[in-house]
Amino acid sequence: MSKVLTALTAALGDAVATDEATLTAHGRDYWARSELLDWLGEPHPLPLAVVTPKSSAEVAEAVRICRAHDTAVVTRGGGSGVCGGVLAGRDQVVLSTRGLTGLVKLDEHNLLATFGAGTMGIDAENAVAAEGFTIGNWPQSIALSTVGGWVATRASGQYSTAYGNTEDLLYDLEAVLPDGSLFRSRATPRAAAGPDLRQLLLGSEGTLGVITEVTFSLRLKAENAVRQAFHFADFAAGIEAMREVLRQGWRPPVVRLYDARESRRHFRETCPEGRAMLIFLHEGPGAQAEVEAQAVAELCAARGGEAADKQTVDDWFAHRNTVPSWRELFEQGLVVDTIEVATDWKRLNSLYEATLARFEAVPGLVAASAHSSHAYRSGANLYFTFALAPERESMVAAYDACWRGAMQAAAELGAGIAHHHGIGRVRRDWLATEIGDAGVDLLRSVKQALDPNDLMNPGVLIPR
Ligand SMILES: Cc1cc2nc3c(=O)[nH]c(=O)nc-3n(C[C@H](O)[C@H](O)[C@H](O)COP(=O)(O)OP(=O)(O)OC[C@H]3O[C@@H](n4cnc5c(N)ncnc54)[C@H](O)[C@@H]3O)c2cc1C
Description:
This protein has helices spanning 3-12, 20-26, 32-39, 56-68, 121-129, 147-153, 160-163, 166-169, 198-201, 235-247, 260-266, 288-302, 311-319, 326-331, 345-360, 395-413, 431-450, and strands at residues 16-17, 49-51, 73-76, 93-96, 103-107, 112-116, 133-134, 170-176, 182-184, 210-217, 219-220, 224-232, 254-258, 276-284, 306-307, 335-344, 365-372, 375-376, 379-388. The chain has 464 residues and is α+β, with helices and mostly antiparallel strands. The longest helix is centred in the C-terminal third of the chain and has 20 residues, at 431-450. The chain is globular. It binds flavin-adenine dinucleotide.
């Protein structure tokens, strides 16, 4: 047994696993490229061990032992990341946060709930829902991801337009830093006392420490909700309606615009061929939802939107978390993935067209489409789906070409390369196009200061 394994086992006992089934289940995340290589018969090697600590103290102990033995630590939550953020090497230890679960504290008076970082999103939401509250974060992967993973990747939920993204919902956090020390951010509703150190961990993807506890600022469950949808002549017309809704100050939790191709795919019954569907969910106390719905309906009608059957939004709710498995698609000869980016309103339609043009230039492309699912006062995201049917030996190259095309399109327009899935391995060499060389140097300096031997999730986030 290696020295690090001996030390980990002596300190943490049965929290350390080395059996093949556990190593296989924890070695990587949902990244389509990893899954594709696996399916093609080129699997990634298994990690050295999986450690599942049951307390922050045990996390600190595991991190200290790995550091003392110069062994890399790959933190894993639910493993639902889609960018290769979890891909542990042969000599690396996976630290699973799934031993840090449950509601630690509910403070109803202050609308605060603290969870172990390894609590699954849906369990966290259900725990507060039972008391009449909501976290308000509904990523499509809510049943597959942990609350710590949400913070580590800056995840976005389907209700973000009203309620915000993870960084807006996070009140405070606790983390074990790369030297094994315990950091707790301040717990105050707002501060003007220097930089906000939560931001170091938000989006850090396991490279700057292990998030062990997360506190969210809650909301009361909405009293009323109204669903409505409108279809537009094309995607650009839908973007304009969306922009106007946000510009006027309305904040429906759900604002989603689908291009004509996706509108046909998702709303065949209610969307006429060639039109772009825009759906809304309005929520709030008293008459707020009705008042907002009425105003939004008038704005949409004035911009050429035609009201669609209410069934449209019901259909979206019924299928909103359904996704096909990569493997089923590979079996059919298809390689599929999604890529989300963001930009301001002025460039949104150009980014849409430029990215689709890049996909269309990739040999083997059979379909490419997009929707926008998160809107802001000054811009929105685009969420692309591409499907390829290449020869077996070209599957990986075609996959890489689509990603390269999307990143190039974003870089050329000065758009954001990642709206919510994070950087992982798939985007890391594009980070400088968004934050510049000076930004990358700053990030490297922070990493060097906290983790001089690059032991926390090496190979992720920071460009080569
Ligand atoms: C079907 C599907 C739908 C999805 N829908 C959405 C969506 O709607 N919105 C969205 O934002 N994302 C979505 N994702 C992506 C993914 O679910 C999110 O990135 C999620 O936040 C990852 O959480 P996780 O617990 O699974 O993290 P993991 O996949 O385990 O890890 C992700 C990264 O975070 C790091 N990490 C995890 N936990 C910690 C921790 N406690 N401390 C430090 N680092 C940590 C890991 O090292 C890794 O780099 C989806 C994924 C799938 C498969």
